[in-house]
Design goal:
Number of strands: 16
Number of domains: 1
Strand content: 15-25%
Largest sheet: 8 strands, mixed
Number of helices: 13
Bound molecules: S-adenosylmethionine
Order of helices and strands: HEHHHEHEHEEEEEHEHEHEEEEHEHHHE
Helix content: 25-40%
CATH class: Alpha Beta
Shape: globular
Structural class: alpha/beta
């Protein structure tokens, strides 16, 4: 995500890039339309989102779109400031020390910037992990990560490896920065007589459209009913989304981790705020060339589609899977706990103070990422306290 405001207007892409992008987008649309027809005219939204982001050779994360940084569509914390990676490295070092060594595993490593920063920091602290694993579904991004790591820290590149599935008996720290928001979600709407509708993608007069109809996706009705028993998602016309892939993902992860700390960093809310009555259209957001908007049916394959994270659902699914809730904090409090002020002072000596201050503000201020972004920790097989959650643990708000 997702900070359109900090960057200068990017240069328009060269004409041939536009032509290639238009072709990929067109082919993706044909692929989606074919699947709508196969499904009898109604395609579950989560499947649409999965195709738009991950369809082999065509989806946003899989095809060649630039995605990150000034020439892309959005900018994430590892790209905003080196301080983010330094702080995460401090939390990793504490956990690895307590474990007596171990590995790191990063999910969805984007450009590779966080991996490079964490490895560099841990090398300076003489606390390098045995391996730095990356689990990245996008072959295009895997390629970019390999090249960037090789270029930036060639002497550490041999510690890095790419996984195609979850490892077995993992020991160490697992990090997912802005990965949960990129998971396909289901959408629902409450009807005039309080009935639950699923929102499907359909075709109408030659265009992609939305149709609300009786739920067909397994588990959706039960999940929305569970929200309603908590007094949420009750008003006619209320629409939102729900991540039904989260629980199976965490359950698979719990099986693969023997001893570990999992850090999930993303924008989102506890459930009561996520589904508050006045958030009537949910949290779905698209990012295209540093503009945020809510229409997932334009720029197909050329824009990111995201949903905020229901952190109560993460904590519930995580503990049900066997993890212990290690803490829940705003990004600002987590970074303070990890020592961002000390890193800031140290970095001032070598870096550009104005740039460092700007980056720190982006990461920390409530009006930028400081409060909207949260960090949730889940541990298995060993306990805290954890420095990142020491300043302020908001677990009781979940
Ligand atoms: C918004 S980007 C964030 C990239 C990077 N972590 C950063 O902060 O710049 C989302 C990333 O998650 C990856 N991703 C999506 N689903 C995933 C999954 N189930 N497991 C691992 N990575 C996933 C995408 O391919 C992409 O690299």
């Amino acid at each position: 995500m997702h900070h359109p405001d900090r960057l200068a207007t990017p240069a328009p892409p060269a004409v041939h890039e536009d032509a290639i992008a238009a072709d990929v987008s067109h082919r993706l649309e044909q692929r989606i339309r074919a699947e709508i027809r196969e499904q009898g005219g109604l395609l579950a939204f989560d499947r649409f989102m999965e195709l738009a982001l991950y369809a082999p050779g065509l989806g946003y994360y899989v095809a060649g779109a630039r995605k990150f940084g000034p020439g892309g569509d959005f900018v994430t914390a590892p790209e905003i400031s080196p301080l983010f990676g330094r702080c995460l490295a401090a939390q990793c070092a504490e956990a690895l020390e307590r474990l007596g060594g171990g590995d790191l595993l990063e999910f969805g490593a984007g450009s590779g910037a966080l991996a490079v920063r964490i490895l560099g920091e841990l090398e300076s602290a003489e606390a390098l992990p045995e391996r730095y694993w990356i689990l990245e579904p996008s072959p295009d991004l895997q390629d970019r990560q390999r090249r960037f790591i090789q270029e930036a820290v060639p002497h550490l590149a041999r510690r890095c490896d790419w996984l195609s599935a979850l490892p077995e008996g993992f020991r160490g720290v697992l990090i997912a920065n802005e990965v949960l928001d990129a998971m396909p979600v289901h959408r629902f709407r409450i009807g005039e007589t309080s009935e639950i509708h699923e929102v499907f993608v359909s075709e109408h007069e030659g265009r992609l459209a939305e149709t609300a109809a009786a739920p067909r996706s397994p588990g959706l009705s039960a999940a929305v009913t569970a929200l309603r028993t908590q007094g949420l998602a009750v008003d006619p016309g209320y629409a939102s989304e729900i991540n039904l892939r989260l629980a199976p993902w965490l359950s698979a992860l719990a099986t693969s981790v023997e001893r570990g700390l999992l850090l999930l960093i993303d924008y989102g809310y506890p459930r009561s705020a996520y589904y508050q009555a006045d958030r009537v259209m949910g949290t779905l957001l698209c990012h295209h060339r540093h503009q945020a908007h809510a229409d997932p049916y334009v720029h197909l394959g050329l824009q990111d589609i995201t949903a905020h994270v229901d952190f109560t659902a993460v904590a519930e699914a995580g503990t049900k899977a066997g993890f212990t809730l290690a803490g829940f904090s705003t990004q600002a409090h987590f970074l303070i706990g990890c020592g961002i002020d000390r890193f800031m002072m140290e970095s001032m000596e070598s870096g550009d103070p104005a740039e460092l201050a700007l980056g720190a503000k982006q990461l920390m201020l409530p009006t930028t990422m400081g409060e909207r972004f949260k960090v949730l920790g889940l541990s298995q097989g060993f306990d805290g306290p954890w420095r990142g959650f020491a300043v302020r643990d908001l677990s009781d708000r979940l």
